[in-house]
Amino acid sequence: MKTYDIVICGAGSAGFCAAVAAARQGAKTALIEKYNTPGGILTVLGNNSIDQFNNPFINDDKMIIKGIGWEFVKRLHKDGFANIPDMDAEYQCHNQYGVKVNPIAAAKIMDDMLIESGVDLYYGQPMVDASSTDNEIESVTISTKAGLRKVKAKIFIDCSGDGDLAEFAGAEFVKGDGEGTFQPGTLRFYPSVYVDSPIIGYGDNRNHIKLDTTDSDNITKAEIYARNLIYEQMKSGQRIMATAPAVAPREGRRIAGITQLSVKDYCEGTVFDDSVCYTYWFIDIHKDNEPTYIQYIKHDKTPTIRLSAMISKDFSNFMMAGRCISSDRETNSAIRVKASCMAMGEACGTAAAIAVKSNVHVADIDIIQLKNTLTNNGAIVPGVGRTLAYNDVIN
Ligand SMILES: Cc1cc2nc3c(=O)[nH]c(=O)nc-3n(C[C@H](O)[C@H](O)[C@H](O)COP(=O)(O)OP(=O)(O)OC[C@H]3O[C@@H](n4cnc5c(N)ncnc54)[C@H](O)[C@@H]3O)c2cc1C
């Protein structure tokens, strides 16, 4: 049995930043990841675009997310492994501002930053269970090459994307549309042509695979279906060399928090007292056989993410960051983009570390201390330093 201050489940965009942030604050931190590689969808499952660090429609400085996520892409860029577009360029489409990274280099830089920060890494060791009392999670169980092992912590953060820890611990969540329908997944592929750019990762494959990423039997079926689809594409002449190891999920569990992000607040760019980072993307619900449902937000609004939407309502020592945070379905389809996941991961990891240091529940930490810490570390925080023109703190 190992014991930590903070245990983070999932080393995707959110978990990576949460772990680096927590460890840099001095918390004894463990990061548990089912694959042997950090990065989640960014590196392993083949979508190598990080959207969106800017709001192209605000005046002056258009950057709305920096901090650890931005430090990461700058490090990649320095060695030629990230393509950072002009964030001030005139708007044509949202995708133009995505930072494209080489997935192999991205995973290596993630390793570097995690190790430099002092995070204990558990790669290839999926979390498979948790034990809890009425109001706290006590430990999680991970599957290792030597069998099952328990890991204890003061605070647990679910960054699994799918919200697995919530299921294992018995915390409340909602799945997909609440009636069994999920946004489709995609099996990314690596074409055997155009490998000359060090930036490019997998091919831009728009296949839509029915996937309930919270159900192992369904995952099995989805994988078999996806491989059949790719096989047909190859038979019809596409030169495909490899695919990602699994169908990438867009949607899993959304864990119930103390508050829930709503589409109304998202579209209005509401700033709350506990708003700890900005986020930017449009409402973007993919569907199986219909066009994607898109709702653009007003140009002068920059939505925010609240700390209380990253704290479970059921367990006082349970937090979440990334695409499994407490949000309605529309909001979730927007906040899931990677730069936003990175910003919330950093805020969540920092908040957890402050709670451990102050010996209080994370819901009781000093929000001003959190905002100041984040700002001092280079993150952009609503209501600190500059406010984004049109937003006012409303409660
Ligand atoms: C096909 C597709 C295209 C996309 N396109 C874009 C795009 O162009 N731009 C953009 O910004 N975003 C895009 N997204 C969205 C974005 O990639 C994800 O929403 C984002 O990666 C979520 O980050 P995360 O850290 O919450 O989760 P993930 O990246 O999913 O990371 C979760 C991590 O947790 C691990 N994990 C899961 N369960 C367990 C467990 N039980 N034990 C241990 N580890 C576990 C996973 O292996 C993974 O590493 C796309 C998503 C998909 C599926």
How many E-type strands? 18
Unreliable sequence segments = 389-395
Radius of gyration: 20 Å
**Residues in β-strands, percent:** 15-25%
CATH superfamily of the largest domain: FAD/NAD(P)-binding domain
Quaternary structure of the protein: single chain
Task: Give an overview of the whole structure.
This protein is α/β, with parallel strands linked by helices and 395 residues long. It has two domains: 2-179 and 251-376, FAD/NAD(P)-binding domain (3-Layer(bba) Sandwich); 189-196 and 203-243, no CATH class. It is built from nine helices and 18 strands. It has helices at residues 13-24, 67-78, 103-117, 164-169, 216-235, 263-268, 329-335, 338-358, 367-376, and strands at residues 2-9, 29-33, 49-50, 82-83, 99-101, 120-123, 127-132, 137-144, 147-158, 173-175, 189-191, 240-243, 253-255, 275-278, 283-285, 293-295, 304-306, 318-320. The strands form six sheets. Strands 1, 2, 6, 7, 8, 9 and 18 form a seven-stranded mixed sheet that branches. The protein has a three-stranded antiparallel sheet with strand order 3-5-4. A two-stranded antiparallel ribbon has the order 10-13. α1 runs parallel beside α8 and α8 crosses α9 (367-376). It is globular, with a radius of gyration of 20 Å. The structure holds flavin-adenine dinucleotide (FAD). Residues 9-15, 32-35, 40-42, 47, 49-51, 98, 126-127, 159-162, 164, 186, 248-250, 322-323, 336-338, 341 line the site of flavin-adenine dinucleotide.
